[in-house]
Amino acid sequence: MLESIITYSFFMQVFRMFTPYYLGASAATFSERSGVVNIAIEGFMIISAFSYAAITIATQNPYLGLIGGLIIGILFSLFFSLFTIKLKINQIVIGVGFNLLMAGLAKFLMLLFFHSSSNTPGYPHIPRLPFLKSIPMIGDLTGDSIIIFALLLVFISQTVLFKTRFGLRLRSVGENPEAAETLGIKVRLYKSGGVIICGLLASLGGIWLASNQGSFSDGMVAGRGYIAIAAMIIGKWKPMNIFFACLMFAFFESLEIALQISGSGIPSQFVQMLPYLITILVLIGFVGKTKPPAADGIPY
Amino acid sequence: MNTSPIIEFKNISKKFGDFFANEEITFSILPNTVHSLIGENGAGKTTLMKILFGIYKQDSGHIYINGNPVSFKNPLDAIMNNIGMVHQHFELIDDFTALENIVLGDEESDYGFLNLNKSRKVLIDIIAKYNLGINLDEKVCNISISEKQKIELLKLLYRKSEILIFDEPTAVLSPIEVEEFFKIIRKFKEEGKTILLITHKLNEIKELSDSVTVLRKGKVVYEVGSDALDISVLSREIVGELETVIDLNIRGDVKSEEPYIELNNIVYKHEKASALNGVNLSVYGGQIYSICGVEGNGQSEIVDLIAGITRKSSGSIQMKYDGISLVPDDRLEKGMVKEFNTGENVLLRNNKSKYISSSKIYDTAKAVVDKYDVRLPALNAPLESLSGGNQQKVIFGREIELDNNIMVFVHPTRGVDINATAYIHKIILEQRNKGKAVLLVTSDLDEALKLSDKIGIIYKGLIGKEFTRNEFDESTDKRNRVLQNIGKAMIGVNSD
Taking the model in full, what pTM does it have? Predict the structure, then answer.
């Protein structure tokens, strides 16, 4: 039975599933490294997925959908930093609020524009990259610009966080903002920077989901924003570790889909449970103590 | 010689709520001098320095640097004016290496990419010049307090600061480390830098200062140059009226036959490191036993074991009586619930009554407040609104009233003003004279010398040397040599 599941297309599926997880997890990492807990990854993914869908339907231009989705992501992360950094409202409360608001907002706008509470009409996806899409065997992956970006992001975020001046300062405000301030670093500016990068990356994850699905439907993000946060914690806020954590989640989600299709007789509810069960097991068993940035979640 | 001041404070006032932290402060500092700012905790020294460094903004008044009015909006403005500050609580990032901590905010970079090696080269020269040897690649969470201070010094030197502010720089250093620190300060002065030293240790002032400004209750009360410096005048100016006078030599011989606390060969391992390596310790009734040492050598582990907060790895602990009275080191975090009022905090240790009425809270608070001379804004005020000294009196009152035979006091007078300190010392001595076993943990050697019947020096998880009162009593002529040996034992050097 396993042979019928672990196939070439299964591995392609793993990397596709990996993409929104990794974008979401890196998003959360940039925010938390700056000391702001952002559990609204899910909400950012939902609203940007919907924005991509709506703009692409309206203009029939997926590039405009992409840009529009990112702008919406930045806009909401500016709100998020206003509430959490400037007004110092509890970050968890704001995060929960954003998640609930975005899910409701997307549904409301869907009814308003498309007269359906379940899904939008279809729309084109972001065009595949020339040349790269025609590479044999892996063309499906390499032709997808966002998948390529997500893979490169492992190295980009590692470099930005640990090899640049911006990264050093970003981490310093997440670890000890008082110390950073005494060295003349503008704490709120860097925290806002972390939150905006977070909004941008999470939105890209949502846009990818929308682009690949071909139509926006209610509940389509399906908790990936939360899994992404779990991946960040399992990966101990380090880009390379998070890469493996996301691969693991992608593997189990792909397995779930494959098992359902293969009709293995294992109850699908059990299989659907797997990624979450794995999260808990990994957190209690294999990762050990995880240590967030020292000033994570504390308003400054 | 240039005699126009490098820094002038003119009528600086700063209020927190209704409380004047600084009130009409006016004085000036000459270039290339060591200027000491002294006063009790809460006298306004740190507030004033934070205004100078751009962390706080004064409500009124002006600061002039080299005759020019300045108005710093943030520390960056101060740094740009060549001012550097080492804060009382080091401002370091535990998860960063020493090198990253030093360059942060003033990084060498190429197109935004860090060039740490370029900074490293600069720092290696500075380290050699000032003899500040540290491992630049070690994470700050793994290094000792004196090394952390070296990092703070390197931060200032790396930025080429000319006006250096030190807030209580020697509070956490052993006597020999203090000597090394003084050498560096003198070297800074030789190079023409101006040093502002905040302290409440009078001997430091005498050794280093060219001039002294005394603050009391937010105001300048006394200024003097090194030529007219008189320690007894100075200490009177710092305190104002002394309220409690105690005779520390009234100590009857009430020592018990058997020890009340006995630790045998205690080993304690925390994570990978061993914090205690075979501690032997006996404290008798009617005795004050002080554990002295540089912080982090195992003091807190001993206290936690005796109090039952942690469990030993091996060895035996014997206590003659059940129940101990404990005043922990960090009163805000461990000793009390700071949001609770006095009565509630005292009743936390009450196991007798199941139901607590508001009149009970009131009566309990009243009893402690009256008996222990606690001064507070209102009887039902949260404990965090009291001054450090009064908070400590509440905790002392609560613990003493339990009337246990074993009492453990950890840093009992840290952050407590001079009057409250004298009062607390009086209480501690009374308990000893009543026959209680008192274990005192302190890093303030003067406190230990005043109070103790016996002093044990802790270094790297071992109580290596013990000294009895007849060795260090003020009446003995060996005292100076014993004091030197105590200082050496604190940093693990064998005495002669």
Answer: 0.80
Domains identified in chain A, total number: 1
Could you give the CA distance from residue A19 to residue A34 in angstroms, rounded to a whole number? 23
CA distance B243 to B420: 9
Question: Is the CB of residue A156 less than 8 Å away from at least one CB of chain B?
Answer: no
Which H or E element spans position B405?
none
Amino acid code (one letter) for B124: I
Taking the C-alpha atoms of residue A243 and residue A255, their distance in angstroms, rounded to an integer, is 18
Q: How many other C-beta atoms lie within 10 A of the C-beta of residue B176?
A: 16
Question: For position A140, which CATH number holds?
Answer: 1.10.3470
In a domain, A223, yes or no: yes
B105/A169 CB distance under 8 A: yes
Q: Is the model's pLDDT at B195 over the cut of 90?
A: yes
Region of A25 (left: φ > 0; alpha: ψ -120 to 50; beta: rest) is: alpha
- Contact list, A293 vs chain B (CB under 8 Å): 95
Helices (H), chain A: 2-5, 8-33, 41-59, 62-81, 91-114, 139-142, 145-163, 165-175, 177-182, 187-213, 224-234, 239-262, 268-281
* Interchain CB distance below 8 Å, B104 and A183: yes
Chain B residue set in contact with A, beta carbons under 8 Å? 53, 55, 74-76, 79, 85, 87, 91-96, 100-101, 104-107, 109, 112-114, 155
Shortest alpha-carbon distance between residue B343 and chain A (Å):
31
CB pairs under 8 A between A and B: 73
pLDDT in tens, chain A (300 residues): 556 666 788 888 999 999 999 999 999 999 999 999 999 999 999 999 999 999 999 999 999 999 999 999 999 999 999 999 999 999 999 999 999 999 999 999 999 999 998 899 999 999 998 888 888 878 888 889 999 999 999 999 999 999 999 999 999 999 999 999 999 999 999 999 999 999 999 999 999 999 999 999 999 998 999 999 999 998 999 999 999 999 988 988 888 888 777 777 777 778 778 777 877 887 777 666 778 898 998 888
Beta-carbon contacts of B249 under 8 Å, excluding residues fewer than 6 positions away, are none
Query: Can you tell me the mean pLDDT for B342-359?
Result: 86
Subunit contact B113:A180, Cβ cutoff 8 A: no
CB pair distance less than 8 Å for A172 and B93: yes
Mean pLDDT lowest for which of A22-36, B45-59, B191-205? B191-205
How many CA atoms does the CB half-sphere of A53 hold within 13 Å? Answer: 27
CB atoms near residue B491 (< 10 Å): 17
Above 80 in pLDDT, residue B475?
A: no
Give the strand order in the sheet containing B194-199.
B83-86, B163-167, B194-199, B34-38, B211-216, B219-225
Count of H helices and E strands in chain B? 16, 21
pLDDT band at B422 (very low <50, low <70, confident <90, very high): confident
pLDDT at position A28: 97
Q: Residue A93's domain spans which residues?
A: 2-286
The H or E element containing residue B76 is: helix B75-80
Domain assignment present for residue A25? The answer is yes
Residue A85 within a domain:
yes
Q: Establish if A164 touches chain B: CB-CB under 8 angstroms.
A: yes
3-state percent helix, strand, coil for chain B, nearest multiple of 5: 35, 25, 35
Could B107 and A182 be called an inter-chain contact, meaning their C-beta atoms sit closer than 8 Å?
no
Q: Max alpha carbon distance in chain B (Å)?
A: 74
CA distance A149 to chain B (A): 21
Search chain B and give the residue with CA nearest A185. B105
Interatomic CA distance for residues B50 and B255, integer angstroms: 49
Q: Considering only residues 179 to 198 of chain A, which have any Cβ-Cβ distance to chain B shorter than 8 Å?
A: 179-186
B119-146 pLDDT, tens digit each: 999 999 999 998 888 999 999 998 888 8
The answer to whether residue A295 is domain-embedded is: no
